[in-house]
Amino acid sequence: VVVAHGPSAEGARIGPRLGVLRLDNGLVTRVPIPTRGTVWGEFLSDRKTAVVVHQDIAGSMALSLVNLSTAEVTPLDVALNGTLIGMPVLSPDQQTIAILFRPQNASSVVEFQMLLVDIKKKTAKTLGKPGRLGAPYSWLPDGSGIVLKRFLPAKSDDIERRVVCFLRMDGTLTDLIAGDDPLVIPHLKCVLFEGSSRDWFTCNLSGLNPVKFADGMKGWGNPAISPNGKEMLWVRFVKGELPQLHRFEFGNKNGELA
């Protein structure tokens, strides 16, 4: 998996570096690209290249293709009237990158908009209106839209409420179900999300029929699906301990440390 590896030996002035974590032996190999810090990355289907959001030497957020063997960086220099702030997520056909950014004319520092970047043409266009949108986000299997979350105003002293929503390719945003951190599971045609109880649930792609996922996976987070759809990665959070990455096969309740 592509990771942001840190903290670095250089100290707090340098952010996490781009790395590749091998799940068979747990070793991380850093990819020495010229950057002040790496935020997010995702493999292309060739598994040799990653699309990466990173802070370039000048301090600006940049979107690039990185050869993981040679560390060659190919900038996707798209015209932007704003700042990249989210993770790059590839469409099912590997032609388009979805990523959140903050428009220059945003009404607040927490107002974001979805950006679609065409990899071959190196062009970008906005999708939908700016709003209190948030990561993570993932494409529907047919590429017809993106599932993400948005924030609602807090009630009294409560934290901001989150809603799982669907952003269609015509820019229409539709609320699906109350929840946080949604992830599309393509082969099951459902959305995984965290409920207010901190348990995890799935619902269908219309936001209906919520069902607790496994035993609820309370205390776990940051789920990710393998390319073949047969495995998931989860991060285990235990108070007073460092987070641990585990891998699970679908249909097998016993995971293993990755």
Describe the structure.
The chain is mainly beta. The chain is 0% helix and 51% strand. It is built from no helices and 24 strands. The strands form six sheets. Strands 8, 9, 10, 11 and 12 form a five-stranded antiparallel sheet that branches. It has a four-stranded antiparallel sheet with strand order 4-5-6-7, with no helix packed on it. A hairpin with a 7-residue loop joins strand 22 (231-236) and strand 23.
Helix residue percentage: under 10%
> Total strand count, please?
24
The largest β sheet comes out as: 5 strands, antiparallel
Euclidean distance between termini CA atoms: 11 Å
Radius of gyration: 18 Å
TL;DR?
This protein has 258 residues and is mainly β. The chain is 0% helix and 51% strand. It is globular and about 45 Å long.
Topology:
Blueprint: E1 2-5, E2 17-21, E3 28-30, E4 37-43, E5 49-55, E6 61-67, E7 73-75, E8 82-84, E9 89-90, E10 96-103, E11 112-118, E12 123-131, E13 133-139, E14 145-152, E15 161-168, E16 173-178, E17 180-185, E18 190-194, E19 200-204, E20 211-212, E21 220-225, E22 231-236, E23 244-249, E24 256-257
Antiparallel strand pairs: 1-2, 2-3, 4-5, 5-6, 6-7, 8-10, 9-10, 10-11, 11-12, 13-14, 14-15, 15-16, 17-18, 18-19, 19-20, 21-22, 22-23, 23-24
